[in-house]
Design a protein that fits this description.
single chain, Helix Hairpins, 12 strands, two-component regulatory system, 504 residues, 3 domains, rod-shaped
Length: 504
């Protein structure tokens, strides 16, 4: 026995019913099938109940009509006092046989004067319904259906109508109804039950056919409704396996269109990141290789010459030193960028006087500005204290100011403005430089991107400064905005929260 039970358990385990029920297609099928079957069953039951109520009502009305006629005959033949009338007896028996029932005639003393079953004849019957019918007359007419025992019980008053004459200014006649007895009738509902049984069998047959149609329909609908999801899954699998990198197409439903749009946006983002990674690796390789190539060329030139004059030797060594400095700057910028790219990189938050910090940075930058005949000024509209990472904000300001100096015109100017409100402080770096083309504004934060590559190499730019600046802003949960007019100058505006809440 235990082996049998274990075998059943193992069978159901292998079926993996839970996994099957996780399928959206199976759930669609079950919902449609169960809804259809329940609706069909409900209609089946409603039809049977409706027929039963209608059949009982019609039969009750029909029998009650016959009983009222019979009650009038009983009064006419004075049957309650004399039961010898063959006509009435035959009529009572015919009515009982016609409806496969039983008729009892009860007088106003609650005595059964006639029973078609000859069981209770001569006995006294005490029933609340009979007494109430004797008291209320025509209002006491009643019909009750006993479904469990399969019969309809009817109470019909036997009423005698008398005319009462009253002498007054005008002569008038009133009718007075006197209840002489009650007809207590039981009518069989076997014919109704038999008809209902036939209807039930036919309805069940139709219901089985409908159930089969519903199951097939549910399977087809579930398959058809979820085909777009299958196509999306297949397309995603093709992209995953590397067979294609094209966006998914094929709008079907609003929901699938939203999924397709979201996935295609993700695919575009991944492609941009992949292209950016490849470009970054290529750029890093190129940027690091260029100074080394220059050093090698200079060194080979020295080695190829004999009795090199000291002046030439010193000139070559100076160029080699410059290339080494350039290589060192690229490596340092890359390391700074990688540090800020790490999600684990935190901020050393302290309360900093932003005005003093900016003055300190500009003090270090003024020698470079004087070298290029650039006027460097600072304007602070109020004292500003913020919770920031002092080193990273210094790096941010230094990169923006350095770019403004390097890509400026001769005898130009760079203006740094500080301001704050109750929530943020603002650093604006404005220059009179060459400006940035509108087509390049969306790319200036990309690593190694240069607007003017030839000029950038002349002044020693690495193409990483703005990328580093943007990362610092993002780490502080701030924003950076740029406006530029080609040939007139560029303005960078940085917004940083005064409080460190949410930046740690």
């Amino acid at each position: 026995m235990n082996k049998y039970i274990d075998g059943i358990r193992e069978f159901f385990k292998q079926l993996k019913i839970r996994d099957i029920l996780k399928s959206l297609r199976v759930r669609f099928f079950l919902v449609i099938a169960i809804t259809g079957l329940l609706s069909s069953l409900s209609v089946h039951l409603m039809i049977l109940d409706s027929y039963e109520d209608r059949a009982v009502s019609v039969k009750s009305t029909e029998v009650q009509t016959q009983l009222k006629i019979l009650a009038n005959h009983l009064i006419m033949y004075n049957y309650l006092q004399n039961q010898s009338s063959d006509v009435i007896n035959a009529e009572l028996d015919m009515l009982a046989n016609l409806y496969d029932g039983r008729v009892m005639v009860i007088n106003d003393d609650l005595k059964v004067v006639k029973d078609t079953y000859s069981i209770s004849q001569g006995k006294t019957i005490i029933s609340e319904e009979v007494v109430n019918c004797l008291k209320t007359g025509s209002k006491g007419t009643m019909s009750r259906y006993d479904q469990a025992n399969g019969y309809i019980e009817l109470l019909t008053p036997i009423v005698e109508t008398q005319l009462i004459e009253e002498q007054d200014v005008y002569e008038s006649r009133d009718k007075n109804e006197v209840v002489r007895g009650v007809l207590l009738t039981s009518v069989s509902t076997d014919t109704i039950a038999n008809t209902m049984e036939i209807l039930d069998r036919r309805a069940t047959t139709i219901e089985i056919l409908i159930a089969m149609v519903i199951i097939v329909f549910a399977a087809l609908v579930a398959y058809a409704l979820l085909r777009p999801f299958d196509r999306i899954t297949a397309a995603i699998n093709d992209i995953k396996e590397g067979y294609t990198d094209k966006p998914i197409v094929g709008p079907n439903y609003m929901e699938t269109e939203q999924i397709i749009k979201a996935f295609n946006a993700l695919l575009r983002r991944m492609k941009v990141l992949d292209d950016s990674r490849q470009e970054f690796v290529s750029n890093v390789s190129h940027e690091l290789k260029t100074p080394i190539t220059s050093i090698k060329i200079l060194a080979d030139s020295l080695l190829a010459q004999e009795d090199v004059p000291n002046e030439v030797y010193r000139e070559f060594m100076s160029d080699i030193g410059s290339e080494i400095d350039r290589e060192d700057k690229i490596i340092n910028d890359l390391l700074a960028l990688v540090k800020m790219d790490k999600t684990s990189a935190g901020l050393a938050i302290t309360e900093v006087d932003v005005v003093s910090l900016t003055e300190s940075v500009l003090k270090r930058m003024r020698p470079i500005a004087r070298k290029h005949n650039i006027e460097l000024t600072l304007e602070s509209k109020r004292a500003i204290t913020a919770e920031i990472d002092e080193v990273k904000i210094s790096l941010l300001i230094m990169n923006l100011v350095e770019n403004a100096i390097k890509y400026n015109k001769d005898n130009g100017w760079v203006r740094v403005t500080l301001d704050a409100d109750h929530q943020f402080f603002y650093t604006t770096v404005e220059d009179s430089g060459m400006g940035i083309p509108e087509s390049s504004l969306d790319h200036i934060y990309e690593r190694f991107y240069r607007v003017d590559k030839s000029r950038s190499r002349e002044i020693g730019g690495t193409g990483l400064g703005l990328s580093i600046a943007r990362n610092v802003v993002i780490m502080h949960r701030g924003s950076i905005d740029v406006k530029s007019t080609l040939g007139e100058g560029t303005t960078f505006t940085v917004k940083i929260p005064l409080s460190s809440v949410g930046t740690k």
